[in-house]
Amino acid sequence: MKLAVFSAKPYDKRFLSHVHAKNQHFHSSVELAFHDFPLSSHTVPLAHGADAVCVFVNDTLDRAVLEDLNSAGVRAVLLRCAGFNNVDLEAAEALGMFVANVPSYSPEAVAEFALALIQTLNRNTHRAYNRVREGNFDLTGLLGKTLRGRTVGIVGTGKIGIALAHILRGFGCRLLAHDPFPTSAFDEFGEYAELDVLLARSDIVSLHCPLMDSTRHIMDEQSLRKMKKGAMLVNTSRGGLIETHSVIEALKSGHLGGLALDVYEGEGALFYQDHSDDIIQDDELMRLMTFPNVLVCGHQAFFTEEALTEIAECTLRNFDDFTRRVPCQNSLVREGHLLVKRGSHPVRI
């Protein structure tokens, strides 16, 4: 059995190869073929001869790509991530293809990174770091606020949202949450509220919901206007949750006090690649990075040893289930029907 791994970075190769070698009794017949390129209509030929493809968040798996994969003999799609908004599940189901994700991997990793963004932006440590390297020890412009007593709104109380709530409780924050499917796991940390109420009351809003039709641009011009003046917005979930043009206008007007992004709506053409010698054509991203109260990272919140180990292990377990034709608990389609649909809340991420 051959597994073609797309968008493979050195760390993907390292962790997948390690888990593969460590579990030879399960995967002895599996051959891993790594490709640095993302999967798209142009790179489908690289999957010829493979039984399955392993993909990441910015690979393209629309109907056309899935049909080409199916024609090439590929029968399974293994997502080494939780999100699946880049996969046409209806087309995959119609083609009889196996699709599985990694629904949860070290939610603490993402939650801890969200906190790191919050405190970096709040206490201006990124600016202080650059200053002192040039011999400038002036504190002017570095004034922050104590986190204790601040109200933090968490949009999405899946595993990551709950992990962040657990951390923020230790800082003495007041916590609000919004989720169309409330969970009792949040009850010990704070209270649920309608989104408009959460936005109006929160000093910091952190997004942890999946990207789907109902959440795309959940933070648009209208939502941003409802936020408390001077509040901070943090997104470590999916770039499409924020309408970029509107957030730029909110920053320019001074209504939005700070923005921390680990994801970006147009990241597919940029993230996970070195563009330091290129002229980046994305004007909105470049404009965002001119603001002193904006942090942009390259979708690295998940990037810990523990998370990459979990991702590799779960991905190969999913492949093992496929090859042995046994039920897979992480399947997104199965036996002639979809297990999840766009617009639903299939997993707690």
UniProtKB/TrEMBL annotation:
Domain of life per record: Eukaryota
Domain (D-isomer specific 2-hydroxyacid dehydrogenase NAD-binding) spans: 116-301
Q: Could you tell me the keywords of this UniProt record?
A: NAD, Oxidoreductase
Q: Which GO terms describe its molecular function?
A: D-lactate dehydrogenase (NAD+) activity; NAD binding
One Pfam family cited in the UniProt record for this chain: 2-Hacid_dh_C
* Start and end residues of each D-isomer specific 2-hydroxyacid dehydrogenase catalytic domain: 9-331
What the entry lists under PANTHER family is as follows: 2-HYDROXYACID DEHYDROGENASE HOMOLOG 1-RELATED
What is this protein identified as? D-lactate dehydrogenase
